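Re-running the complex after MR caught last week's input typo. The corrected sequence lines follow. Everything else is unchanged.
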Amino acid sequence: MKEQEPLLFNNRELSWMDFNMRVLEEAYKKDNPVLEKLKFLSITASNLDEFFMVRVASIKEQIHSGYKEMDFSGLKPTKLFECLSQKVHDFTEKQYSCLNRSIVPALKKSGLFLRKPKELSEVQRGHLSLYFHKILFHVLTPLAVDRSRPFPVLANKSLNLAVRLEQNGESYYAIVQVPSILPRLVETPCEDGRTFVLLEDVIVMHLAYLFELHEVKATTAFRLTRNADLAIDEEAADLLAEIQKSIKKRKRGRPVRLEVDHKCDGETLAYLVETLKVEKSDIYEAKGPIDLTFWMKFSGMEGHDDLRFPPIVPAPAAGFVGKSDIFSAIQERDIMVHHPYESFTPVVDFVRQAAGDPNVLAIKQTLYRVSGNSPIIAALENAAENGKQVTVLVELKARFDEENNIHWAKALEDAGCHVIYGLTGLKTHCKVLLVVRREEEGIRRYLHMGTGNYNDSTARLYTDIGLFTCREAFGSDASSLFNTLTGYSRPPEYQKMIVAPHAMRSFFLHKIDRETKNSLEGLPAGITIKVNSLLDPQIIESLYRASKAGVRVTLIVRGACSLVPGIPEVSENIAVISIVGQLLEHSRIFLFENGGNPKLYMGSADLMPRNLDRRVEMCFPVEDEKLFQEAIEMLDLFLRDTVNARIQLPDSTYVPVDRRGKPQVNCHTEFSRRAHQKAKERLAELEKAKESL
Amino acid sequence: MKKRSVRIVAVIDIGSNNIKMRISQRSKGVIGDLEMLERPVGIGHEVFSTGKISFDCLREISKIIQGFSRVMEEYGVGSVRVVATTALRECQNRAYVTDQLKIQNDITLEILEETQEKSLIYSEIMRQFRERELTDFGNTLISYIGTGSIGIAACSHGNIVLMQNIRIGSVKLHDILAGMEEITDRFDVVAEEYLDTLLSDIGDYIEKKSVKELILSGSEFDVIARHCQISSVGGTYKITGKEIEALYDQIKGLSAEELCERYEVTEAEGEEFYAVLAIYDRLLKLTGAQRVYYTKIDVWDPIMRQMLLPAKGGDELELSQNTLASAGRIAKKYQCNREHYDFVVGVARDIFDKTKKFHGMGAKYRLFLELATILHDCGHFISTKNHLTATYDVIKNSEIYGLTRDEQHMIANVAKHNESSVPDLTDTNFRELGEKQQLIVSKLVGIFRVASALDKSYRQKIETVKIKLEGQKLVVAGITDHDTFLEQWAFRQCAAFFEDVFGIKPVFELKTKLL
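Corrected-run output:
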């Protein structure tokens, strides 16, 4: 790409950092309650951890291996790393600035104190001393480093203290791991509110007990982040064992970031840098507690509800109100459920009811990420015990959920389920649940297709859409999809579903190109897409072509977006907004005007190369007229949001929506209100019908 | 809730390049598909190159069927038929394969014979076309082009009268002529001439008829349909002969690369596309048909129908009519005496029906009796001296609609005993039959010989033959004013064997109109 050409593609990593910045803005936002701010701050930290373990690690690997090719945004790995490093350093500064200047003072105002040892009263110090001797001391294992004792292997993301000691004029180091099994914040007695002290500070206060014969010269907290992208041999005979092996290796991946206390003494820092073999650019100085993820737990502590958003309580799913039999409800018509505004319970009940129904012959489901104590897993186990044919595709390669999924895979197998791990080289990310039921008129297949995981916990925080149907063509497609995943059959021509990597890329390209053609022919044309990420160059190029042809393109992209809107003669007709707020936007919707006969699709796929080429993803059309209309209204509400929405400018920065002259609209609270209203209306309808009988 | 009325069945088809399974249900009298599974496996490649299926390949087949079995369980499939075609038919160790699949997968494999397979396909094509009133099969040629063989059936007056299987299909044609590409760049000319030699027999028949339409099936038609921009109605494409000829003209000079590029097909698809078009073109040239249909029929369509909608009277009648018409065509080819066999068929049928409580045989063996009677004189065309053996050979080796090789073998055994000899275990051909088949053949021979005796002179001297059972006697009564010494002598020759088989004594009673 020549330098003078306008930037046509945002870099994936830099754009992702902008997304994390939008999350951090929520932590700054004056209207947000303080514990919510803390939660947002914690999310940015946990996002960043994963970003380092995977994305930054990947760039560093490219640099190490001498890869010098430019990416689509025109950046070579070295240049990208330079830009990224600067951006992350600035971001880290902002995180601590937010914590120290905005959040900690606000917590203080609410009677919640984070105190340093020197700020503690005698009583409080006494309490901590007791805590140290009775509890903490027993779980600490100081490791001295000298000629005979090498530097210990530090677990990825573990918080440690480096202690510089001196004995007989000789100085050396010891490492004390801050135990992750204990709460990071220790509460001490407090008369004017609640006081908390960092666990590492409690250790530092009592270091003399750990190193009795030594003089402690300096102490600093530090944390190492490692490359945690698994290298899996998918051809291995036992994929499960292979992944278990790789997870162990992940704990010892190459360091990609060293976080140290900004007050770390130079000698210790030099020692750490040399020993851990990190580069200068990998060092991030924390002006506060290292690893801000612990605030998530703190923000969720009992009480203090006044310091949080009013909770979004799921309403009963209107389509199932008054229906005790899920199957007959689905038979009546397709039912769409919007989580978390509507309860996730029907999804769980669907599996539960199927498990206990004597007419159900088989249940098939994909599982990507499931909750800790998943009621869906329990229902599937129950189904297998009841003699149903249960097939579960557990995606063992779901990043950072590998161990969890191995556990579930084994549990399901023990219960008699047929557990499969999907296709070599592809992650199975589609969300499908199929129930085969023998009825009077023959076999009928019931189906749930979704945009999000079968995870009852995240379904309270992630916005996702699910569709229940028993339309024959969908059932047939779902069967074919499972037959492909189990390896029983090769991919068929699907009737309704759009499945990646088989045909999704070409499908979306075709749909976009059709809009371009329609626009040129003067037919109604328009594209509205809501995804989590938009990074696929081919798709972006086709959207640019559409824009040039006059197609109005509206993109609701929560996270990274490589498309640059508003470039003259390239993307003038494209608008990009990002919605970041109380809930995590996760649903994917695709609307094409189609010459006046609009078509709407939903599904599991984002518009990224990995989704279109390296994953099994599935999108489905919404055909029921009423549900189609509801989906259109959803998109409309997203686009009217003035609270959570930000607009991407041609320079790729994001600004809040201009609220002037517009009513304040928070799509999250509004969706919730509508869901409750809908359930209420449905209930009233049923009452009325009952009375008229 | 009452729910057990729905029947769910499966058909597994072990083909040359893949194993497929279809699960269907009958709901409200209609067949609905629930599953279509397909896994590629190179059975054909092994069989065609080594003559055998390796145990590795067998293990793969077994594994695939294991997966299919699991899917069947998921639907509570009531019954399954596992059929195999060309590859297993030509496989030398098919007995081991069948045995291993029984042991490993608990399935009974049916290896369909070529005529059986094609008969099933033709019957399904005829049923569908009749249902949709597309043709009356007045003068129609049906051709099923498989990867390894071309099947041709000629229809006249609504019945199949001629069937022929040519051991060359879309893939084999290219393989056989592959070396020619190095010698000449006019591959099309070589292919056309080669096909003409293979199709010459059917050509002789067609020349005398005016074929109105050609119905094609088998190898994929998608590329042709796409190119000619035609779409299917209910799975059937209608195209003109000119369109196919024009397309063939366009491609026949193209190199393999050009073909792939222009028609967006893989090399293998391109080869098949070329061969199929060459075959279509030859068939069009042979028939001059202007109306061409293509319909996608798989062997499992009629099998599924048999399983879910068990044969109604109409289907069986149609099957026997086609079989009889096909036998009639062979009889004509070998210049059999129509008046003679019509007479004998009539008497034989009558005896069969009247003696049912003694022989206990059903419609299928009644048909065998008729076929043996129609064809019993074929051998005379070849050799007067060895006509019995020649008859046996002709029947055994002809392609008769709807019959398996075993069935034709039985019929041939019946037909060869139309003179003094009776079936016994000194006869090699008879010995080749199973015990049950030997018994049936013996019963049919008993009836056939008595019937045949009544027209020993081939002059239909006896009018109004009446058959009746009187106690332990079978009375064959006829009216004639002719001398019937020969017939009476022949009848006596046959009576003993009939009595041996059925335990009833045939008695010949003749009356004259003169009294």
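None of the earlier attempt is carried over here. The mean pLDDT of chain A is 92. Chain A touches chain B through 25 residues (CB under 8 Å).
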